[in-house]
Amino acid sequence: MTARIALGPRPRILVIALRRLGDVLLTTPLIRSLRRAWPEAQIDALVFADTAGILAGNPDLNNIVTMPPRPTAAQTFALGRQMWRRYDLAISSQSGDRPTGFAIAAGRARIAPVEDRFSGRIKRALLDRNVPVMRGLHRVEEMLRLADVLGIARVPDMVTPQPQPVEGLPEGDYAVIHAAPMFRYKQWTKDGWRALAEALSAKGLVVIATGGPADSERRYLDDIWKGTAVTRLDGRLSWPQLSGLLAKARVYVGPDTSVTHLAAASGCPTVALYGPTDPRLWAPWPAHGLAELWQATGAIQQRGNVWLVQHAFPCTPCQLEGCERRLESYSTCLDELPVAQVVDAVMQALAGARV
Q1: CA distance 332 to 94
Q2: Cα R_g (the chain), whole angstroms
Q3: Which among 120, 309, 326, 348 could bridge 115 via Cys, Cβ 3.0 to 4.6 Å?
Q4: Domains of the chain (ranges plus CATH)?
């Protein structure tokens, strides 16, 4: 095992995660590993401003430092100068130039993943320790390899935003459906979502629909849920409120999106609809860790509190942006995913116990 990195009794530690919402959530096992290793440390996270909510109330963090999602060169330089050598240890969770550059600027000791190319060799010379980038690993495994190189114990726990109550929920048991992913190529069909909602209602469950505040997403959900009895909360909930909603749900169903990762981490029985995305890399991480690796394909796979559903073609998972290789593309593997297969997975999840 790698020797534990030497830090003082109350070190200042920075974790840099400049990616999308789901990626930031998948960084929390590394943050928890740091907290367990250094209970008295000040641990901060540097993230984009539009992802900070996914860390709200995280008990392992002292502060969340934010930057614009598309910073100018002047903003990047100003933040780097502000953070210069403020931390005893700075860890980039990515191999990219900007997050690694912040780690090099902010930390007296610097850790990051590095790729086997010329730029990686330069970064390696400026880092105290590094992790060679390996293809084909789940994002959480990538994070825990950073714990390994620090010489600290892995703690593979996902940490959700601190749950907050949601006012005005219907009486009785309920299911949560999050039908809108960020990109078109991850969408299931309108008819599929409507048929699933009917099947859940027939089981005596109130169906609650969630979604983001964007106008385009609202229009998409208007088209899906028009004329149904679904209770819509899209655009109304913060990340902590979403955590509170999922904490009491009988089941959650959604595509490859950050809310699906949140549902899995919360312990809610979670049904994830996957198409082009490779589950070996990006499947939801169950609440108590992943005892058995996900397979590339399978009609219904279960790991802990997560059921993953795919309609596999020979090209599945292609790990590409749909059949047309663009964000607004269709994905045949999702367009042809049968309702009966999804309902089967949901019934299995309803029969399982919350973890």
Answers
A1: 31
A2: 21
A3: 120
A4: 12-150 (3.40.50.2000), 174-351 (3.40.50.2000)
